[in-house]
Amino acid sequence: MNTQQLNRQQTEEKYKALKNNFFKRGILIGGMSGLLYGVYSAFLTLGMSRGIWADWQAPGSGLSVFILTYMLSAIGSSINDTISGLFSLANVTAKGKLKDFLRTMRTKPGWIMVLAALFGGPLANTAYVIGLQMAGSMAAPVSALCVAIGALLGRILYKQTLNLRMAAGIVLCFAATVMIGGTALSAMNSQVLLGCAISFIAALGWGIEGCVAGHGTALIDSEIGITIRQCTSGIVNTLVLVPLFAVLAGNITLAPQLLGQAWSSAGAMPFFVISGFCAMLTFSMWYKGTSMCGAALGMALNGTYSFFTPLCCWILLGLIFREPGWAITPIGWVSALVMFCGIVLIAMDPRQLFQKKSTQKQKLIKAKN
């Protein structure tokens, strides 16, 4: 082997090593997005049980069940998404992308991202928060049906592939949801069952968002796309959804009154700051991880929040902060794992992992020979 061939071989080996490390980093970042989603959910729930929120939920507060269940959830989602949007704006500003953000807002892909944010933000996020308040951590596996719904909508709207493997994954996801629903029924708790049903609205909203945003973000920087998404959600939640619930409650003045009290609650806001920061990170890592290890695997890794959310809520809320009602039944853990397996089947062919290992072994054998 001459010097030129040796240099070429060394260059190819270095390139493969860098590519492999890049792929592994993508897997780590994608997995972190699922974990941080669980952390975000736990701190959001914790913030909505501290300070003025505890006073609102106490007996004799004078607030109706409708306000306690729906309007306060919209306020919680509004505060979280607004803080997340501010963190996202600060991030793009620090990286010199603010002008690109403003320029993108005037383009067609930018407006498509706004449309996607309307489904995934005010609709899905608020439904998810309501689900968390009513059904606890079991809202996460139900909302994770967004992966299955996204696959079905992609087939219907954009004629995307829906093969037998993906269909099997969808069946597993819905089977996990039935298991969760069975748990709620066996507990004879109509509130938990209703919370799971409302969480399905979140799954529908995120599924629609995934389809729409997939076309809109093809030409948009991921960090700019996230900023558009979070800012849109925060603004629409604050200026549209919260006042709408106030009107439905029969008193429009409740919107500025409750929002002002929530934003000025010193006991709750530190937890909202943490949840908003984690919300920004989880979406950022989802997009970044997907770009590094592929859309299919990135989707599967982010979908692990269906498992991490019950785990984080149990650890942070149940064990550390001693909040009651966050223990998870064995069937709950099993349904979360079944949901995760279904997500993996939808997003990728597990045989590819074994094929890669087999290829690597063959290369090692050839190298030894």
Largest sheet report: none
Class per helix and strand makeup: mainly alpha
Helix count?
16
Task: Report helical residue fraction.
Answer: over 70%
Element string (H = helix, E = strand): HHHHHHHHHHHHHHHH
- Low-pLDDT regions: none
Question: Care to describe what's here?
Answer:
There is one protein chain. The chain is mostly helical. Helix content is 83%, strand content 0%. The chain is built from 16 helices and no strands. The radius of gyration is 22 Å and the shape is globular. The model has no long low-confidence stretch (mean pLDDT 80).
Short key terms for the protein model shown above:
83% helix; 16 helices; 369 residues; mainly alpha; single chain
Describe this structure in a few short sentences.
The chain is an all-alpha fold and 369 residues long.
Which helices and strands, and how do they pair?
Blueprint: H1 3-47, H2 52-57, H3 65-94, H4 98-104, H5 108-135, H6 139-143, H7 146-158, H8 164-186, H9 190-216, H10 222-248, H11 254-263, H12 269-293, H13 295-302, H14 305-320, H15 330-347, H16 351-368
Helix pairs in contact: 1-12, 1-13, 1-14, 3-5, 3-10, 3-11, 3-12, 4-10, 5-9, 5-10, 7-8, 7-9, 8-9, 8-15, 10-11, 10-12, 12-13, 13-15
